[in-house]
């Protein structure tokens, strides 16, 4: 098996080199907007948020029991205290504890100022108002101190954090009702090709249904993006130019699938050269060799290959990091894990390959991975079954069963 890279006049750009050029060419957008906390999930925080209060704001009980002063009990013998009231969550005890007294207290309730400890209710014996407390060797137990989680003025969330459910919970606990976030990236995407037909239409000879718009639309389903589906563009230079220039007037990023290769009907490269700037790369990557990246009328442009597996691979490896860069997010390499391959994998040297795989974890924690099927860049059923990429370096000449390989799970990208 001979890789097509063998026919190139000069070495192809590696995936790492292409990514470095993309990230170097992009600068984060500066526009922000303010949203309520309920609308902030998945958005990118524009400014750091600091605590305006201690968390928790007051000392409170870590469990149901009885609150008392440590000086009133002994580490060596049980002591009987008099219960003089109750502290409920949201309704603090209003009196003042005297020596030898305690209060019934519930989880989250404010600990009276004169108390410093809480004993679990299961550890005491109660007879009316008399509460017998066993030896207490550790003063201060079962009390959450004010500010032990977050101190007043401390950072809650750093800027350019993609807000998670846990982040929202933390901000809400601190009373933050709204936050400034980076405005969504405006992205318009198109499919190109005379052979593409919309769903619901009958196929003529030579035609196929347009799957790329649904695949790419799914990849772009993210609250950080404001996405416009531009539809299908025919292989016509005039139509391509008019549609892309119109979209470029309002979008931050244009993405096309198809038309980025070297065939006679692949017009994307020529259009970029005439109306923008282009760094046209034939990447040492499989699937995904043809990729156009540049600007069109001041709008960032990604021209992806036409085959769906190549769309998926180039988006995950190159486009998604670029979009994150525009949002001000630092680049994070994808998680890769070593697994034992159980399939024979064919590969010729020349390009880094991202083969679709199915990985699983055994009861002992070990990882194995198998090929998901045929690896042709048009075989959507293989992508459907896969849950990871098997990442094979350019120098690899195939993998035998039992060898260790790197896998990149699909479901851990940010």
TrEMBL record:
Biochemical pathway: Cofactor biosynthesis; molybdopterin biosynthesis
Enzyme class per UniProt: transferase
One annotated GO molecular function: metal ion binding
PROSITE patterns to which the protein is assigned, alphabetical: MOCF_BIOSYNTHESIS_2 (PS01079)
Reaction(s) catalysed (UniProt annotation): adenylyl-molybdopterin + molybdate = Mo-molybdopterin + AMP + H(+)
GO biological process: Mo-molybdopterin cofactor biosynthetic process
Entry keywords, A to Z: Magnesium, Metal-binding, Molybdenum, Molybdenum cofactor biosynthesis, Transferase
EC number, UniProt record: 2.10.1.1
Domain (MoaB/Mog): residue spans on this chain: 188-325
Signal peptide positions on this chain: none
Pfam families in alphabetical order: MoCF_biosynth (PF00994), MoeA_C (PF03454), MoeA_N (PF03453)
GO cellular component: cytosol
Cofactor(s) in the UniProt record: Mg(2+)
Function: Catalyzes the insertion of molybdate into adenylated molybdopterin with the concomitant release of AMP.
Family per similarity comment: Belongs to the MoeA family.
PANTHER family hit by this protein: GEPHYRIN, MOLYBDOPTERIN BIOSYNTHESIS PROTEIN
Name of this chain's protein: Molybdopterin molybdenumtransferase
Species annotation: Methylovulum psychrotolerans
Source organism phylogeny: Bacteria, Pseudomonadati, Pseudomonadota, Gammaproteobacteria, Methylococcales
